[in-house]
Amino acid sequence: MQRFSPASPTRMETPSPASPAPTRRSRTIRIGDLALGGSAPIAVQSMAATRTQDREATLRQVHLLEEAGADLVRIAIDGAADVEALAWIRQNSKARLSVDLQENYRLALPVAPYVDKIRYNPGHLHHHEKDRPVADKVAWIAQVARDHDCAVRIGVNAGSIAPHYKERFPGDDVGAIVSCAADHCELLDDTGFENYLVSIKDSDPRLVIEANERFAELRPDVPLHLGVTEAGMPPDGVIKTRIAFEQLIARGIGDTIRVSLTVPFDDKGLEIEVGRQILADIAAGRFRSVPPNFFDGLNIIACPSCSRVENERFIELAADVKRETEWAAEHDITIAVMGCRVNGPGETDDADLGLWCGPTTVNLKQGTRSLGSFGYDQILPRLRAELETLIAEKST
Ligand code: SF4
Questions:
Q1: Atom 6, ligand 1: residue with shortest CA distance
Q2: pLDDT band for position 161 (cuts 50, 70, 90)
Q3: What is the full DSSP assignment across 308-362?
Q4: pLDDT per residue over 91-107, tens digit each?
Q5: Closest residue CA from atom 8 of ligand 1
Q6: 337 CB less than 6 Å from ligand 1?
Q7: In the CATH hierarchy, which fold is given to the domain comprising 23-283?
Q8: How far is the CA of 342 from the centre of ligand 1 (A)?
């Protein structure tokens, strides 16, 4: 499957350090008291990784990210107990808050009074009320946002694209996600709601670059939230993110950024520090290049974790997978390590080997095929065995 055009970032035209930064053409929207888009500074944001219902821990995350300089902090909401925790967090923090609706778009109504922005994933709208047209659901979200003075993010993710876009664009993931994002902009435009932005993310920075460039050509007026999802652990996660941000921001594309890194909860402020450093480097013309073979060899992708992580051993496991597979560094194989059972099963489908974490076991997959679930103490030898088999198969 072609996931991106053959052009690699190393062969892309690198903007001259002497060139003035191009003007962003997006309109300005408002998230609480934060102006975003147009000539406003590029905002830096992140997400609480703790379970939302553990409200003290989540409030600590909000404070930690705020102190690191976050302009906006996102929290995942899966049900009524999360909404209750969010209300308590709102009472105890002045941070600008955003929520991720995930599967249940109806949660927009109870959360809206407590937040400044609501993110919905077009790929998740079909999970509930399957007979209700998507346009109705989007119009309803827009009305809720309008009533509570919230912004909306259309958050498209290549790993969870609505099924009919895959059918319309067979073998062209970029076409599918760009078209999905543009269609949802039109749905919001039809309601007269303008206080929205778009994100188009993937774990491959090359896809992120191409998709955001194509979208910005179609809709230069719509502010863009940039991010490389599941970038993984530093330093690789930082490098992947920098590749995408340099190419896009230097072309005037991108109004807010999120750096996604798989790091312990207490180190999440690093996402903000790295984001600000990348922005400062781009503004000063300090571009980093990567060698042409940067994308060759073993590729470990790992989600940044969020409130859906049910076993904190996920973070340690991601680091263990990286260390224990170093012997296979030369092989062109992708291993995905995901933190939860909500997005883990889907987000590992495109990897050669995928691991997604449950409360007591880790589920192992080869592509879309399940290889079973294993205890946290058993998974690494099993992964090694599968990796050896895969390498042997590929070399015959
Ligand atoms: S895969 Fe699950 S735990 Fe990881 S960031 Fe996505 S939703 Fe959160």
A1: 343
A2: confident
A3: T-S-THHHHHHHHHHHHTGGGTTS--EEEEES-TTTHHHHTTTSSEEEEE-SSEE
A4: 999 999 999 987 889 99
A5: 306
A6: no
A7: TIM Barrel (3.20.20)
A8: 7
Please state the domain extents for the chain. Answer: 23-283, 299-394
Q: According to the model, what pLDDT value does residue 337 have?
A: 97
**Which pLDDT value is given to residue 12?**
45
344 lines ligand 1 (CB under 6 A): yes
* Per-residue pLDDT at 20: 52
The enclosing H or E element of 258 equals: strand 256-258
Is the CB of 83 inside a 6 Å radius of any atom of ligand 1?
Answer: no
Domains 23-283 and 299-394 share a fold: no
- In this structure, whether the domain defined by 299-394 belongs to CATH 3.30.930.10 is answered with no
pTM over 0.85: yes
Rounded distance from Cα 189 to ligand 1 centre (Å): 30
Instruction: Name the nearest CA neighbour of 327 among 292, 297, 294.
Output: 297
Which atom number of ligand 1 is nearest to the Cα of residue 341?
A: 2
Ligand 1 pocket member 308 (CB < 6 A): yes
The total of other beta-carbon atoms located within 10 Å of residue 45's CB is 25
